[in-house]
Amino acid sequence: MNICVFLSAADLDVRYTTPAREFARALGEAGHTLVWGGSDSGLMKVIADGVHAAGGRLVGISVEFLRTKARTDADEMVFAADLADRKAQLLARADALVILAGGLGTLDEATEILELRKHGHHTKPVVLLNTAGFYDGLVMQLRRMESDGFLPVPLDDLIYVTDDGADVLTYLQQR
Asked: Which long-range contacts (CB under 8 A, 24 or more apart) does 167-174 make?
């Protein structure tokens, strides 16, 4: 399976790196391919290192303006013209999408894939790995959107939320 992971390129503490490393190892050991933003820094590096060390394949999709930060030993590295093209290519290459801790770029990617799924532009499973309660506020907001009528489909049909990295792969492998 090609699993696209949206996450931060920032250096983060062990609350985020340890679960990411564990998830990456499981992803690689299961023989899946990591499709990610291609950066060789921060949490993106942690997950790519883990997948690579466990024998998984790496497909990076970066952007031209970040070429100097791209991982050099990926199995495949693509450079999109801009961020919009990058998001489209990430989605196109993915069989499933997983969201880990991240900043504004990750939030942008997450909301776009949910919006596209809501409108039926893709049916790929989307999982939010809520490490250390990082996305508690977002989940609360999404539940409010659902209860107040802003979502035309049930939230559970759009995204699966878990705080357990092993649960992510179990869920995806059942799809």
From this structure: 168/23, 168/98, 168/127, 168/129, 169/23, 169/26, 169/27, 169/30, 169/32, 171/125, 171/127, 172/1, 172/3, 172/96, 172/98, 172/125, 172/127, 173/1, 173/30
